[in-house]
């Protein structure tokens, strides 16, 4: 994923926002990333990606999802929603 790619579709939170939040606020737990624009509090699809980015940041890395394309991420969320595993916010 690139910096401008969306991680949280419900609240339109990009990877750049997540990484900046990590750098500036230095959360102690991955769950605190929800304070970054509400990331992870909508349908729940992005929670694993938030955790990966948190863990990578803790390890001094920024490429936790370098092998993931934005199209694959979006398609995965569509499948997740269609299987009834999460309820998207209206308009997402």
Q: Can you give a write-up of this model?
A:
With 92 residues, this protein is mainly alpha-helical. The chain has one domain (6-82). It is built from 3 helices and 2 strands; from the N terminus they run ββααα. The protein has helices spanning 15-25, 47-58, 70-82, and strands spanning 6-8, 13-14. Helix 1 (15-25) packs across helix 2.
Task: Offer a quick outline of the entry.
It comes from Thalassoglobus polymorphus. This protein is mainly alpha-helical and 92 residues long.
* Number of separate strands: 2
- Secondary structural class: mainly alpha
Helix content: 25-40%
Counted up, domains total 1
Tell me the β content: 5-15%
> How many helices in DSSP terms?
3
Oligomer: single chain
What is the typical, i.e. mean, pLDDT? 90
Low-confidence segments, ≥5 residues, pLDDT <50? Answer: none
Q: What order do the strands of the largest sheet run in, or round the barrel if closed?
A: 1-2
Order of helices and strands: EEHHH
Radius of gyration: 12 Å
Biggest beta-sheet profile: 2 strands, antiparallel
Features:
single chain; 92 residues; mainly alpha; two-stranded antiparallel ribbon; BFD-like_2Fe2S-bd_dom; BFD-like_2Fe2S-bd_dom_sf; BFD-like [2Fe-2S] binding domain protein
Draw up the topology in text.
Elements: E1 6-8, E2 13-14, H1 15-25, H2 47-58, H3 70-82
Antiparallel strand pairs: 1-2
Helix pairs in contact: 1-2
């Amino acid at each position: 994923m690139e910096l401008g790619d969306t991680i949280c579709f419900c609240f339109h939170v990009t990877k750049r926002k997540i990484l900046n939040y990590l750098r500036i606020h230095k959360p102690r737990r991955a769950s605190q990333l929800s304070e970054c624009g509400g990331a992870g509090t909508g349908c729940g699809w992005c929670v694993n990606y938030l955790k990966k980015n948190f863990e990578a940041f803790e390890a001094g890395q920024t490429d936790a999802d370098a092998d993931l394309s934005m199209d694959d991420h979006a398609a995965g969320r569509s499948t997740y929603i269609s299987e009834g595993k999460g309820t998207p916010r209206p308009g997402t």
